[in-house]
Design goal:
By secondary structure, this protein is α/β, with parallel strands linked by helices. The chain contains eleven helices and 13 strands. The strands form two sheets. It has an eight-stranded mixed β-sheet with strand order 9-8-7-10-6-11-13-12, with helices on both faces. The protein has a five-stranded mixed β-sheet with strand order 2-1-3-4-5, sandwiched between helices. The longest helix has 15 residues. The two termini are 34 Å apart.
């Protein structure tokens, strides 16, 4: 039975997990709190791949023998197999912990349900499904990648009210406000790769780096090009992060995403230009949409989502779980395409390929 205190402590564990968003890939972000007599006495989160998992860090931070009345809250089912670190289930059993509360079951086929069964067999009282939807949503990119082998794709753009990505030639390229651009950098900080087309590199010479966000790692920068001809002095080819730039020549977006998934890239942020965004829409490759709508009509030359489009309204791509947020004078719109079998935030469809 779920109580208000259960949700309170799981929210604390979620807050811990969010502290490392964007730094744990290809592992999921996980948080944990240890509770004794309805008080949190220790906290922990997984900081990056190869370092201690959240449960282990939390137990270590307590620094004393675990009393029988203690309860550990963790956002994701503990792992039961050895990888870069030893199985968390072993550590929990060895610590003598008698009660464990879990947010979401791990969708990783190697772990899913096995950790819970192992702990229960060892006599640990396990309750699961506390704030399961929120805990699962936290790792939506990992969940898709671990099941399908392909990255979670976010289509992001800043556009005018008339659907343009650009202003007239010779003017400032900015359509959205400074605060909205800062929000976009926060989004960049949470993905493994940022992808653009060659024309965006030629026209805007973007850096595709993260600015104004502390303690983050630079995502891979991916450029799609038909000709292979890019300016030699483009930032993505000449700055200090040039080694984290990948160039794909004459490759479809779908094939590039598949290859990125094989490289262990779990999430990709498509930032333009219009042709790439249009291809992503036409081929139904988008898992999430993030649009920043600026308060102007520019009549600029580049449409946000060109391409073939839907032949009739009934075939249009519709969004669910839409969120609207005002950021200064800019409106942020996000949502998930309502495509059958693509609900990665919960259980995937039975016919989803397993990696």
């Amino acid at each position: 039975m779920t109580t208000d205190r259960d949700e309170e402590f799981m929210r604390a564990a979620l807050a811990e997990a969010k502290r490392a968003l964007g730094r744990t890939s290809p592992n999921p972000a996980v948080g944990a709190v240890l509770v004794i007599d309805n008080h949190i006495v220790s906290r922990g989160h997984h900081r990056e791949a190869g370092r201690a998992h959240a449960e282990i860090e939390c137990l270590r931070n307590f620094g004393a023998r675990i009393p029988a009345r203690a309860t550990l809250y963790v956002t994701l089912e503990p792992c039961s197999t050895a990888g870069r670190t030893a199985p968390c289930t072993n550590a929990i059993i060895k610590a003598g912990l008698e009660e464990l509360v879990i947010g979401a079951t791990d969708l990783n086929p190697r772990h899913s349900g096995r950790g819970i069964a192992e702990l229960r067999s060892a006599g640990v009282r396990v309750r699961d499904g506390i704030l399961a939807e929120e805990c699962t949503r936290l790792n939506e990119a990992f969940n898709k990648w671990i099941v399908t082998g392909q990255p979670f794709v976010i289509a992001k753009c800043g556009m005018s009210l008339d659907g343009r990505l650009t202003r007239p030639p010779g003017e400032s390229r900015w359509i959205t406000g400074r605060d909205a651009r800062r929000d976009a950098h926060q989004l960049r900080a949470r993905v493994d790769a940022v992808l653009v087309g060659a024309e965006t590199v030629r026209a805007d010479n973007p850096r595709l780096t993260i600015r104004g966000v502390r303690r983050v790692r630079q995502p891979w920068r991916v450029v799609l090009t038909r000709s292979g001809q890019l300016p030699r002095h483009a930032h993505v080819l000449s700055d200090k992060f040039a080694v984290r730039t990948l160039i794909y020549k004459q490759k479809s977006l779908a094939s590039v995403l598949k290859h990125l998934g094989k490289r262990g890239i779990t999430s990709v942020l498509i930032e333009g230009g219009g042709d790439v965004l249009g291809e992503a829409l036409d081929k139904r490759l988008i898992d999430k949409v993030q649009i920043y709508l600026g308060p102007m009509l520019t009549g600029g030359p580049v449409l946000a989502f060109p391409g073939e489009g839907a032949e009739q309204t009934a075939d249009a791509l519709r969004l669910r779980e839409i969120e609207y947020k005002q950021i200064g004078q800019t409106i942020s719109i996000s949502g998930y395409p309502d495509v059958p079998g693509r609900r990665i935030t919960g259980k995937l469809s039975a016919d989803s390929p397993v990696k």
